[in-house]
Amino acid sequence: MHSFPIFLSFDRKPPLVVGGGELAAVKARLLLKRARSVDLSAAEGELAPELALLVAAGLVTVLAPKPGTAELRGRPLVISATEDDAEDARVAAIARALGVPVNVPDRPELCSFALPAIVDRGQVTVAIGTSGTAPVLAQRLRAWLERELHPRLDAVAKLAAEFRERVAERLPAGPSRRHFWEGVFDGPAARAALDGDESGARRLLGEAIERASAAGPAKGRVLLVGAGPGDPELLTLKAVRALKSADVILYDHLVGMSVLEYARREAELIPVGKSKGDHSVPQEAINALMVERAEAGQTVVRLKGGDPLIFGRGGEELAALRESGIEVEVIPGITASVAAAASLQIPLTHRDISHTVTFVSGHAAGGEEPSFEHLDLSALAGGQNTLVIYMGVSTASVVAAKLIAAGWQSDCPVMAVENVSRSNERRVATTLAELAAYPERLGLASPAVLLFGKVAGLEAAGAVDRVLSLPELRRAYA
Ligand SMILES: C[S@@+](CC[C@H](N)C(=O)[O-])C[C@H]1O[C@@H](n2cnc3c(N)ncnc32)[C@H](O)[C@@H]1O
Predict the structure, then answer these.
(1) CA 392 to ligand 1 center in whole angstroms
(2) Inter-residue long-range contacts of 60-65, CB under 8 Å, 24+ positions, other chains counted
(3) Terminal-to-terminal C-alpha distance of the chain
(4) pLDDT tens per residue across all 478 residues of the chain
(5) Which domains does the chain have, with CATH numbers?
(6) Catalytic site residue 274?
(7) What 3-state class would DSSP assign to 426?
(8) Which of 252, 253, 304, 311 for mutating ligand 1's site (highest number of atoms within 8 Å of CB)?
(9) Which of 61, 152, 392, 462 is surrounded by the fewest CB atoms within 10 Å?
(10) Listed residue (446, 462, 274, 457) closest to 353, CA to CA
């Protein structure tokens, strides 16, 4: 079962711990990190020493043991830690019937909630849960977060709380205010708070508010971001930061869902998917949408598969944005062929067998078949070049025939890679002649890149489907 994390408030009624032993003491101590007081159902004469101390300090109030409906009703939560199976089951049953959240240590079948591993920084709490599957993993995550999170993080939260109202009065809600706070948490006021310089932090934050309100509403901007070929681990750190800062994300159909997991939760996600023959949102409409949102002060992420400036109409988008005077930044991504080379462990250049790499579109701008009229294929036929074809699945055989006609060796190796970096990545090796004559034997599906040249014949890492030539097939079946 997957559980949903929430943070409970203990303002109305104290939580209730049932039991008077060591286990109950541990749970009461945990709750007292956030609750002003805890009620305890236990026999007063049989309290563990720690509980007795907490009672003496006025932090724990003892109620009669064996609580019933009246004691459980309206509790924010109940922990039954009597270490008596029957009694814990009885308490859990009443709590569940009343709809009161209940936990019984080490009895998940009786629990309606699990206690998370907690990293505590005062106002800032990080709760880690594994839906009961891996408590040791939760502990490891906690240890890691303990190291990563500044011990004085609470000071930053307190500073924000102190200035929250003043910021709300001075800066309009929406992107302006959000960007302001993002700047604060990355800026000198937060650093001063972390360094323990409380008055410095207040002064710096006050100055930042003055500056921001004098500057007027935040200007929107567009980030053209490369999402890489699909595996989110191939995103750059800058791309992740952009996704986390976006108000709106316009994404292409080649961008995998796992990449969008890195988006800010509140970001508006707009698919503007473009695949061959399916221009669901025309380019002009995409340009207009980016301009409109940026002019409204939003941070717009235009998320494109691979690299935004390789066969992605990124140039047209840049021109439209510049023409409208919109601030724009380009964040590069790993283009499909470079990711394919890495996955195959095949170099695109090689000092002995390939001195150039040419990226070519398998489609002409408006039509189906590429004319290659601007490309001197015969100049590249010398056997020392690598040709990479994008968007070439349906025209692969035409491309191969044109290369042969331009003087490329018919036994030149070809490697096609589908769905590079994704769980369904597939590689197929063949030759120019086979591809020209029998393209269907590759069983190629989009998206795929095709590598042509000697490097494509080098030994690849991982499984490769091989399309045997007809002479090879004849030999195999002789
Ligand atoms: C419109 S282009 C975009 C290229 C993209 N900007 C890049 O740098 O990879 C689309 C083509 O990129 C290639 N492509 C994109 N992602 C791919 C992937 N994960 N696996 C294989 N090819 C991919 C395919 O050739 C596809 O037809």
Answers:
(1) 10
(2) 60/28, 60/32, 61/14, 61/37, 63/16, 63/39, 65/18, 65/20, 65/41
(3) 57
(4) 678 899 999 988 999 999 999 999 999 999 998 999 999 999 988 899 999 999 999 999 999 999 999 999 999 999 999 999 999 999 999 999 999 999 999 998 999 999 999 999 988 999 999 887 888 999 999 999 999 999 999 999 999 999 999 999 999 888 889 889 989 999 999 999 999 999 999 999 999 999 999 988 778 999 999 999 999 999 999 999 999 999 999 999 888 889 999 999 889 999 998 655 555 789 999 999 999 999 998 999 999 999 999 998 999 999 999 999 999 999 999 999 999 999 999 999 999 999 999 999 988 766 567 777 777 888 888 789 999 999 999 999 998 999 999 999 999 999 999 999 999 999 999 999 999 998 998 999 999 999 999 999 999 999 999 887 777 777 777 7
(5) 1-115 (3.40.50.720), 153-215 (1.10.8), 221-334 (3.40.1010.10), 338-477 (3.30.950.10)
(6) yes
(7) strand
(8) 311
(9) 462
(10) 457
Active site residue 244: no
Ligand 1 neighbourhood includes 312 CB (under 6 angstroms): yes
Q: Tell me 390's DSSP state.
A: E
* Tokens coding 143: 């240890």
Ligand 1 in reach of 256 Cβ (< 6 A): no
Nearest one of 416, 420, 359 to 385, comparing CA atoms: 359
Please indicate whether residue 254, judged by its CB atom, sits closer than 6 Å to ligand 1.
yes
- Distance from chain centroid for Cα 392: 30
